[in-house]
Specification:
5 helices, 2 domains, elongated, alpha+beta, 31% strand
């Protein structure tokens, strides 16, 4: 029964999360300044801001797949016109031809641009390993910031488009799977198993 309740609450939480995501991705775009003032209520919403990319500060999030092909998510540091710095996920790129060959990553445009994307919290970043070029694997964004002596905002942006056509990702960062999953079925399964245990004990008592 404990396992059934655990799976039930997981299902409820996942359904609530999916409902929030579905609602917020349909909202109209707002300025990043308005969203950053209420981060928890703005995650997944589309935001826009002006600023510049720093292509010397770039990391590749590995173990990302698209159409069955192995690759990386490209995260590049972005600083707004009012001085806020955060990571921008510029989309997926395919891995190099060999294990030692780096992927082909296009450079972001130089100078001030306008970007539009989904606001994401640092805590919602997919858990994986970072592979920095140049350098070795480092960990999550917060760990990378500490090691690089950076102090970025507690959010990042999944890039969707920008004022320059080259900013439109060929493969943009994917939304999480918005299904409720098998948790409710698992909850019923655990209840069924519990019933079998009770039924089995009754049979044992009757045969004594």
């Amino acid at each position: 029964m404990w396992a059934a309740q655990w799976q039930y609450h997981r299902g409820v939480d996942r359904h609530a999360r999916n409902t929030v995501i579905e609602m917020r991705i349909t909202k109209p775009s707002i300025e990043l300044g308005l969203a950053s003032a209420r981060l928890l209520d703005s995650e997944w919403q589309t935001v826009s801001t002006d600023g510049a990319f720093d292509n010397t500060k770039q990391i590749l999030l590995r173990n990302r797949y698209h159409d069955g092909k192995y690759g990386y998510e490209v995260l590049t540091l972005f600083t707004t016109s009012n001085g806020k710095s955060f990571w921008v996920d510029r989309g997926w790129v395919q891995a190099g031809a060999t294990a030692t060959a780096p992927p082909i990553v296009s450079s972001p445009p130089i100078g001030t641009v306008t970007i539009t994307g989904r606001l994401r919290l640092d805590s919602s970043l997919p858990r994986g390993s970072f592979f920095a070029l140049p350098g070795n694997g480092q960990g999550l964004v917060s760990k990378l910031n500490a090691q690089s002596r950076l102090n970025t905002e507690k959010f990042y942006i999944d890039l969707l488009s920008g004022s320059v056509s080259s900013l439109i990702p060929k493969v943009s960062a994917q939304l999480p799977e918005l299904s409720d999953g098998p948790h409710m079925a698992y909850a019923l399964q655990w209840v069924f198993f519990g019933g079998l245990v009770i039924y089995g004990r009754l049979l044992i008592r009757r045969t004594r």
